[in-house]
């Protein structure tokens, strides 16, 4: 390991953050990219929050509801690693505003959709926007970190999680009373996001896009390829556990509350907001804690630590359902920043590809989970789905297989 861009190894052998940061974080850029992430994910979460409305409007089954999520998530998951790989080699100055424009088109299509097919097309445009936005913005968050990579990823992620939390609240306040077409008004937020990303793009071009033909220094990998590949597989298993579980919890949470406790749509969406807002708060902790104590303890605790709450959830009353989902959101959401930075440190010089792979896989597992669990709900019940997914956080045990000692490539 040759420079400050390479992860250090702590005394236990886990990957720890690079110590010799020589610059301060670019807080203005981190704030802008986090704000744009909030706008982007807020618009995406409107689809999730609109499920009860779309289900009634187009007489959809739970399987079709899951197909909407699958279309959005699969579009994003397939393209994100390719976008990251391409931009690692050929940085694109205005890729971020272009991605936000695609999301805006999807939002407007969703507002005007006359059929289920157009709803799926709208979800695909939103997915394309995400496939461009997430790997590129994650790269810029790392560039603006000043060496505090976990902190920067948490700032970036908290914007997205806050946007995801706000979506259901706005849906309850605007879309439920005024109908599907009112979604178009949220296009104003997309325009704001485009303005923010234009400023970020100028900073990126000025500070970090090298002249044609220039070679950028790349740090050595901390482990040999075989160990890196094994660690990446373990991290992807943890992503599967997290996002398959979150897909079942969030995609069908409003239906679960309505079915089991007889809540109204607006009240159920308020509870969904509470869960998602707790997830946003939890995101703040994962990155900075990982900067201090290493990524592996955070990864271990955030996935496996959710298991007791998840196992209790299907048997709780309304009060404890709310309390348990808050605990789940706080703990589980701290995982992704730590997982992503850990993976970036395993493969230095490939930030875009790694970010695209992990965001893409996360979205893909979320989409697949929503589709599979939607079909399961159609054949059984929402309550059975919640009992079945409760065991997924136990996969956090595989974190024990992550590298513990330094290896020389």
Description:
The protein has one domain: MFS general substrate transporter like domains (Growth Hormone, Chain: A), CATH 1.20.1250. It is an all-alpha fold and 409 residues long. The protein has helices at 27-49, 51-57, 62-89, 95-112, 116-143, 149-178, 187-207, 225-251, 253-261, 265-293, 295-304, 307-312, 318-332, 335-346, 351-379, 382-389, and strands spanning 8-9, 15-16. Strands 1-2 form a two-stranded antiparallel sheet. The chain starts with 7 loop residues before the first strand and ends in a 20-residue tail after the last helix.
Number of helices: 16
In CATH, the topology is named: Growth Hormone, Chain: A
- Average per-residue pLDDT, rounded, comes to 81
Largest sheet: 2 strands, antiparallel
Helicity range: over 70%
Assign the structural class, choosing from mainly alpha, mainly beta, alpha/beta, alpha+beta, or little secondary structure: mainly alpha
Strand order of the largest sheet: 1-2
- Low-confidence stretches are 1-22, 210-214, 405-409
Element pattern in H and E: EEHHHHHHHHHHHHHHHH
User: What Rg, in angstroms, do the CA atoms define?
Assistant: 20 Å
Query: Termini distance?
Result: 9 Å
Number of domains: 1
Which word captures the global form?
globular
Question: Strand-residue fraction?
Answer: under 5%
**In CATH, what is the homologous superfamily?**
MFS general substrate transporter like domains
| CATH top-level class | Mainly Alpha
The second-level CATH architecture is Up-down Bundle
